[in-house]
Each structure stands twice: as structure tokens, then as C-alpha cells.
Write a structure and sequence with these properties.
By secondary structure, the protein is of the alpha/beta class. Helices cover 37% and strands 17% of the residues.
Length: 438
């Protein structure tokens, strides 16, 4: 960050002199004496570069890094082309901040515009923001978008990611909205229970595609039930899966949300990620965050503008529909670069590999006694029963360098594959599990 070095001592003295002060103590004289720091901070003394590197390497070695990953449940181990990180790590992008002065932020505005264009194309929706913190907050923000004075009840499918459900419940606890959970049946939304739950007070129904168990929901019936009552349909989706599945727009969703992590963001111990939100044009003004548009300047040159900023900082707090303040610009840029580098063909191939390998692994696990729990079409995640306690099987895998699936209960595991998994390691995983003693 050569362009962002802090001011020198001489520069600080010049600034103090300019405002008529003698030293830093005088600058902070307004701070009460009793709350000022006395003496030095309780920190170790400085070290040389080599000593610091050794210390950091020793700490890093305490982490467990699995070379073979078969766990998803909302965060996925995908291949990220080298060009993505190379481009995004340019200083101009890393140090760019929220475009408050849009007229001099054309570069960052263009990157947001390109991202919004691609994510709308991917979801089949009309408008996108840029963006929110993660997929869970995107789902909760979407539910808040749907509320009005007559409809204040939010219905959520139990087949959704539990973390997303809890986030929606947390948002609704704060704003006084009621949340109703529709049970799942055979791994998918119980349509009979959904019909009973969709009353005139319901503003929206949230469901994922694929759902938490990796299964493809019956969207045709769900859409008909929800829209018949006048409620809105919010679809949570895996963006990479949309390269091969029907888009939310084609399936009749009003709002489509999800986590952009599969679009070029590493697992990174849980973040930072990026939640995308897209909607039909009728709901544009309710989208939180920023929307960037394309126009021309007075000379006829292509230019970009903030066309909408539906943020609480610009309106009275009690009228605000959202408290989101970040546009996650660096993460959206990463998603945009990933989509541009991969292209439609590359993303489709990655998605096809994900699902093909998941079905291969499921067949191999079946031979070792790990039986498929739900006889439903799935994308790249699936649930199996286990012939031994789940934790015992997973600990056995860990000792061999494998991160197995997510244990859902003592006898159930949610498995996941991506394009990163090879046939050889899937065969070895099945062989390792076969050797686990009951």
C-alpha cells in the first residue's frame, strides 16, 4: 500500500502548528484525565522481520487444513482461477471505498454495474443491488422488503438452511414480524402444510433451491400456492447451480437471494462473503443498498450513476426498510471477475461436474452402507444414513486427512462434492469408511 503510508512526524508537527497547538497532548486535552492511558500498552516488544515470520508460521501450523473436503452446507470449496485474485488484489480495488461522490468514482461504479448486470442475467431477474453481508442477511432483508401494514407474517420452509432461518427470526424479532416455519416432508417442503400456512396475513414465503439437503424443490406447485394468496415468493439459490437449473425468474419468484461465496470467494474461515439480492422491477425501490445505472454525460460519453440508494442514512430512521450500510464492493467485484473469467460455459461445466461427482459419490457410499435418505433429485449435496455413529465415521476420516460431511444427527450426514473432488479421492473416502468398525 505504498500510496497509503501514514503521515510522518514532521508532517504531524506542521499540522499541529497550523491549528495553533504545540504537541499531541494539547490536541487531546479535551479527553478527561481519568480515562487517558497511563504508561505503555501491555504488549510485547517489537521483533525483527524473520522472528515475526517464524512466529506467524508456527501459529499457522496449529491450524488443521484438509486437502480433501466433502462438506458444504452453505460454504463451498470451489476452484478459483488465478486471474480472479490477481485482478482483485490491485491496489486501486483494495483501497476503493463506498462511492459517496459518484461523479469521481466511475471505476468502482462500473464494477458494481457489471456485477449487477451479470447477477441479473444469472438469476433471470430485473434488478440487483450491491449488496449485503451474506446469504442469510440477504434472505432476512428480502423478507423485510415484503412486509406492509396488512401483511406482517413471514413463512419459511423448514428445508432451508438452519442458519438462514435463525437470521430471519432474529430480524423479525426486532421488527415485530411473525415467523411461521412450514415443516418438510421427505426432504422437501410439505405442500399441504404450506397451503394451510399461507393466510391473508402472510407477506412472503422463503424457500431454497436447492434446499439445505441438496434436493430440488417442486417450484411449480409452490409458486401456484403462494401467488394464489397474493403473497410474494422469495427464492434462496446457489448461484453456481443456476448455471444449469431454471432461473428464479423462470420459476416465478418475486425476489431471488443467496450467498455469492461460490462465485470466486475462498472459504476463509467463514468470510468475508457477499449476499446477492435480485428482484422484479416492481420491487426496485424496496431493495436495500445501492443500484448503479448507466447513462451518458453532457458530452455523450458512457457514464455510471447511483440511480437509487434506499438507505436509512438518507431517510428518517423510523421509515427505513433496512439498516444495511455496506455495499460489499470488493466482494461483488470478486464475484464479477469470477463470472467474467469463467464465462457461461465455464460456470456450466463447473456446475455439471459438481452434480455428476455428487451422484457418483452417493453410489459409492451406498455400497458401504451409507444409504441415501431422501429419494429425491439433488444437485451436489445429499443426506445419507450411517451404519456407525456419524461422529465416529467423521473422526476416522479426519485422521486420514478428509473433512467429511456435516453431521445432522447421530446417524445422518450431509455430504457435498464440487469440481475440486477427484474420482480417486472419492473412491478412497468410500474405502476409508468401509474400514470403520461398528
Amino acid at each position: 500500500m505504498g500510496s497509503y503510508v501514514v503521515s510522518t512526524r514532521e508532517e504531524q508537527e506542521q499540522m499541529l502548528k497550523y491549528i495553533g497547538l504545540c504537541d499531541m497532548g494539547e490536541l487531546f486535552s479535551v479527553i478527561p484525565e481519568e480515562v487517558r492511558l497511563k504508561g505503555e500498552l501491555n504488549l510485547p516488544s517489537g521483533c525483527g522481520e524473520m522472528d515475526v515470520v517464524r512466529r506467524m508460521e508456527a501459529l499457522a501450523e496449529e491450524n488443521i487444513r484438509f486437502r480433501h473436503i466433502f462438506r458444504g452446507a452453505g460454504a463451498y470449496h470451489h476452484y478459483i482461477p488465478a486471474a480472479v485474485s490477481r485482478i482483485v488484489q490491485k491496489e486501486e480495488f483494495l483501497t476503493a471505498y463506498t462511492p459517496y461522490q459518484a461523479e469521481i468514482s466511475q471505476g468502482i461504479l462500473q464494477s458494481i454495474f457489471e456485477y449487477q448486470t451479470m447477477i441479473c442475467d444469472l438469476t433471470g431477474m430485473d434488478v440487483s443491488n450491491a449488496s449485503v453481508y451474506d446469504g442469510a442477511s440477504a434472505a432476512a432483508e428480502a423478507a423485510a422488503m415484503c412486509r406492509d401494514r396488512k401483511r406482517n407474517k413471514i413463512v419459511v420452509s423448514a428445508s432451508s438452511n438452519p442458519e438462514v432461518i435463525r437470521t430471519i427470526q432474529t430480524y423479525c424479532f426486532g421488527n415485530g414480524a411473525e415467523v411461521v416455519i412450514v415443516p418438510e416432508k421427505s426432504g422437501v417442503t410439505d405442500l399441504g402444510a404450506l397451503e394451510e400456512a399461507i393466510t391473508p396475513e402472510v407477506c412472503c414465503f422463503y424457500v431454497q433451491q436447492p434446499n439445505f439437503y441438496g434436493i430440488l424443490e417442486n417450484y411449480g406447485d409452490i409458486e401456484a400456492i403462494v401467488h394464489k394468496s397474493g403473497a410474494m415468493l422469495v427464492m434462496g439459490c446457489n448461484p453456481l447451480a443456476l448455471a444449469v437449473l431454471k432461473t428464479p425468474g423462470e420459476l416465478g419468484a418475486d425476489i431471488a437471494v443467496g450467498d455469492g461465496q461460490p462465485l470466486g470467494m475462498p472459504l476463509g474461515f467463514g468470510g468475508p462473503y457477499q449476499g446477492f439480492m435480485t428482484a422484479r422491477s416492481a420491487h426496485t425501490r424496496k431493495l436495500p443498498g445501492r443500484i448503479v445505472g448507466e447513462t451518458t454525460d453532457e458530452n455523450g460519453n458512457r457514464a455510471f450513476v447511483l440511480t437509487l440508494q434506499a438507505r436509512e442514512q438518507h431517510i428518517r430512521r423510523e421509515k427505513a426498510g433496512s439498516n444495511i450500510c455496506s455495499n460489499q464492493a470488493l466482494c461483488t467485484l470478486r464475484a464479477a471477475v469470477y463470472m467474467a473469467v469463467m464465462g457461461g460455459r465455464g460456470m456450466k461445466e463447473a456446475a455439471e461436474q459438481c452434480t455428476a461427482k455428487a451422484h457418483y459419490l452417493q453410489q459409492e457410499l451406498d455400497k458401504t452402507g451409507y444409504k441415501l435418505k431422501y429419494q429425491q433429485p439433488f444437485f451436489h449435496e445429499f443426506v445419507t444414513s450411517t451404519p456407525v455413529p456419524a461422529e465416529k465415521a467423521l473422526k476416522h476420516l479426519e485422521r486420514q486427512g478428509y473433512l467429511g460431511g456435516l453431521p445432522l444427527s447421530d446417524r445422518e450426514i450431509l455430504w457435498c462434492t464440487t469440481e475440486m473432488n477427484t474420482r480417486a479421492e472419492m473412491d478412497e473416502l468410500a474405502a476409508i469408511l468401509k474400514g470403520v468398525q461398528k
